[in-house]
Design goal:
about 450 residues, mainly alpha
Length: about 450
């Protein structure tokens, strides 16, 4: 059972387009709020990472479901895929309700003691009041993503993401600035626009699945008895990925809280760099997701010897696709940064951080592919501990660079180099020492 470059690409590019389109939502928010002011920009940085930390619990669960679905797909067991989809959806909707309640009514108590600026805190709470509604729609959409990636049918992402971005761009313009008779909501308008656009994406996934997927083959039934042993197995697999992604974003949130202590300008710079770096990270994430699901299908089919080929070809494709863009951005940093702000001083202060984060991709490319494949073959526990080790190095650097040395913001972003280097070393060690071919899900 061999995998071709074409097969990897056909799975990767719809995921890539969808992730890139979704990041345009964040870029659009940042671009509009950059015209509102630095406080709005900084508040959006903190509150969006806070939202993302909770969102990653759902994302982590969906990754576990995706791994299980890919193994069943490789084994040709389609009816069980439908059961996993239903049980995963029940869990994610319940988790979405809890996330909504925590964000809407608990954020003030959580953020109040740790954000110094009263203006930034007020902006964060305004953003989260409206953004909390998005959990219901985003979590349900995650289960559709797990299903489509697991069965290697990813082209639905392209259409859904185009719809989501289109709605978000229009509503950002109308709600942030109060155009065409709409209220001028500022940062709250950006959050409401994002939540509505996610609702539109969910509606698309429901309709696409209804009319383009053979529900009989996958035994789709939306009213069925939960299989508790299977649900327990799904939670056992997903628990490690939930922890992995949640801890990762929580640490990222701590980074932004630390930067906030360096001043509002440092926070504004970091928001721009975060928004920009996430764009090319999503390209890498698309290739890594393809590698993960192909590795899962290989393991499900009883062909673990095909996994190294998946890793090698995915890495080559990701380098060929991403490195030219990174070189271009590094050579012309001002043109790139001008998308986010027209403040010449802010652009100048952001240039060095951009170069630092672009260089980190040298380690991120192999590290992320390897770590996602470890999850894809079914060893989510090992992937979790690799993540914890990487974040340990990251936090140690942040503590030294920000809290102790009060370093410039560009030096603070070197933390990403530490993170990816630790992940790369640990992932290579896993494949050299562990009996990964014997993993079963």
């Amino acid at each position: 059972m061999h995998v071709s470059y074409k097969q990897i690409w056909l799975i990767s590019y719809p995921i890539m387009l969808s992730l890139m389109m979704e990041q345009i939502v964040g870029i659009t928010d940042t671009a509009f709020l950059g015209r509102v002011g630095e406080i709005a920009l900084g508040a959006a940085a903190l509150s969006s990472v806070y939202f993302m930390a909770i969102y990653m619990l759902g994302f982590g669960f969906s990754m576990g479901a995706q791994i299980m679905i890919s193994h069943r797909n490789g084994a040709g067991n389609r009816p069980e895929i439908g059961a996993i989809f239903y049980e995963g959806m029940v869990f994610l909707i319940g988790l979405g309700a809890l996330a909504f309640a925590l964000t809407r009514w608990g954020s003030a108590a959580i953020l109040g003691p740790i954000i110094q600026s009263k203006e930034v805190l007020a902006g964060c709470l305004d953003y989260l009041d409206w953004r909390a509604w998005g959990f219901f729609f985003a979590f349900a959409s995650l289960m559709y993503r797990a299903f489509y990636v697991g069965i290697e049918h990813t082209k639905a992402f392209t259409y859904a993401s185009v719809l989501m971005v289109s709605v978000n761009v229009v509503l950002d313009y109308l709600l942030v600035f109060g155009k065409a008779g709409f209220p001028e909501m500022g940062i709250g308008g950006a959050a409401l626009a994002s939540s509505i656009s996610e609702a539109c994406q969910l509606v698309f996934f429901i309709l696409y699945t209804r009319f383009r997927i053979d529900g009989t083959a996958y035994a789709f039934r939306y009213l069925r008895k939960l299989n508790l042993p299977r649900m327990g197995k799904l939670l056992s697999l997903s628990g490690w990925t939930m922890g992995q992604y949640f801890v990762a974003v929580c640490v990222w949130f701590v980074f932004f809280l630390a930067v906030e202590h360096l001043g509002e300008r440092a926070l504004a710079v970091s928001n721009i760099i975060r928004s920009l770096s996430v764009v090319w990270f999503m390209v890498l994430a698309a290739f890594s997701s393809a590698a993960s699901t192909l590795a899962g299908n290989m393991m499900g089919a009883g062909k673990p010897e095909g996994v190294p080929e998946v890793v090698r070809k995915t890495f080559i494709l990701s380098v060929a696709f991403l490195m030219p863009a990174l070189i271009l951005v590094s050579v012309f940093p001002e043109a790139t940064l001008r998308v986010y702000t027209d403040d010449a001083a802010l652009i100048a202060d952001s240039r060095a951080s951009l170069w630092v984060i672009a260089a980190a991709c040298l380690w991120a490319l192999p590290a992320h592919v390897l770590q996602k494949v470890i999850s894809g073959i079914g060893n989510t526990r090992a992937a979790f501990f690799i993540e914890v080790a990487s974040l340990g190095g990251y936090m140690a650097y942040v503590a030294i660079a920000i809290y102790w040395l009060k370093s410039p913001v560009a030096v603070c972003w070197v933390a990403d180099h530490v993170y990816w280097l630790v992940m790369l070393v640990c992932s290579i060690a896993y494949f050299k020492r562990a009996n990964w071919r014997a993993v079963r899900v």
